[in-house]
Design a protein that fits this description.
This protein has 182 residues and is mainly alpha-helical. It contains 10 helices and no strands.
Length: 182
């Protein structure tokens, strides 16, 4: 599916190379396929096209973290923070970065800021539990683990709830009756 998306993005890019977001979409798809060097080039092109968009810097920082280039990721995240209305995801990535650099207090602070807004992100609670563990905050660690378990289970239940809904036929939707398509 991602391969097909990349092909379609390239067609759009040929037709309109200045379209905002197209390089970012390519960066995202390529990074998810593990094509990190190509993804980094697309991130750079998107930054050149939209230098005042904080999300572009956050996306590029995510790919640099995947490439284990913490220095460049930190630079990009700082740039995102300096722009107007940085996305909340910047704080999760900062938390990851600080954890990898063994700056556990800073990681905890960044992750708590992120989780104050994104309360259902189980992976962020997991990261926070690790940061708390290394700072000796046992209570914070236990709370983060409990939140991780709660949000992980909630996400699993949401997926399970959608499965029967995906099998509802048009006639069932119109009547308001649930049921499986035959």
């Amino acid at each position: 599916m991602l391969f097909r998306s990349i092909q379609e993005y390239r067609i759009v890019l040929q037709r309109n190379p200045d379209l905002p977001g197209i390089h970012g979409a390519l960066c995202n798809a390529m990074s998810r396929m593990g094509r990190i060097p190509e993804a980094l080039k697309e991130c750079e092109a998107e930054i050149a096209a939209a230098p005042f968009n904080a999300e572009v810097y956050v996306d590029a920082a995510r790919v640099h973290l995947l490439a284990h280039d913490d220095t460049q990721a930190a630079i990009l995240l700082e740039k995102a923070l300096k722009l107007d209305r940085p996305p909340i995801a910047v704080y999760k990535l900062l938390g990851k970065l600080y954890l990898s650099q063994k700056q556990y207090q800073a990681a905890s602070k960044a992750l708590r800021k992120y989780l104050a807004v994104e309360t259902t992100d189980s992976s962020a609670y997991y990261l926070l539990s690790r940061a708390c563990k290394y700072t000796g905050d046992t209570q914070g660690m236990n709370q983060a683990i409990a939140a991780f378990k709660r949000t992980s289970e909630a996400a699993k239940n949401t997926l399970e709830a959608h499965e029967p809904l995906d099998n509802v036929g048009p006639e069932d939707e119109a009547s308001g009756q649930g049921g499986r398509k035959e």
